[in-house]
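Title: Prediction job returns without error message
Component: structure pipeline
Severity: low
Priority: P3
Assignee: unassigned

Description:
Job completed but the reporter wants confirmation the result is attached to the right record. Sequence as submitted:
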Amino acid sequence: MKPLKVTSALALCIISVSAIAQQIQISKENKTIAISTSDDASAIADIAVVTVGFSIYGKDQDSTYADASRTSNAIISALTTAGVPKDAIASAGQQLSPIDPNSDENRTRYAQGLRFSFNQTWHVTVPATQAGNVLHLAITNGANDSGDIAWQMKNDDALQAEAARKALEHAREIAGQMAQGLGAKLGALVYASNQTPPRGIFANMGFGNVELNTASAAMSARMKNLAPLAITPERITKSATVYAVFAIE
């Protein structure tokens, strides 16, 4: 957010804003009070980025790839049939490779005649309330390496702005108390800047309205005699630090 400058006849000096301005400064000569405060704003996440994927093993390259192709397409078909848009599904990685016979985890597989492995992963972006259903659909259709969820806010900027607003209000309260201590009256805001922390790696990932076909999800559940996992969104918190300068009368 760019610094907000407000012209005021009560600003009787040039205020220098620098790194050292993080501390509170009071002066009767320049008729200003400078405050630096931080505050938070939080809300329940409304977006879920669900990681789904699978790992399989085979006796040779061709048969391993053929099995992987069937599993891969079954997972994506289940998701899109249920109503997840194709542009909400992003491939995160896929690899076909020979297994290492000397590793502890593959020694038994190698003895069983398995020689190749295939791994594939996607990130599926849906409303937070649909995270459990998406994970359920993927797992019941072969996604045996799934479960990570990154929780986000659809309107990330609004939550950040709320944190900045609360920080500015906090700054005004402190400045008012300090003005009283000086026997003065708090005047207008003459300068403010919002300093925010780095944004998350998944910030501003958008998606359209997504409504899963619950009939398809229910059908898959009956086939597997399973219900979706009980998953609840986490609370997202954003922080803001505001440096504000107020005139005093």
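Comment from assignee: result matches the submitted record. Strands lie at 4-5, 25-27, 32-44, 47-58, 89-98, 116-127, 149-152, 186-195, 235-248.
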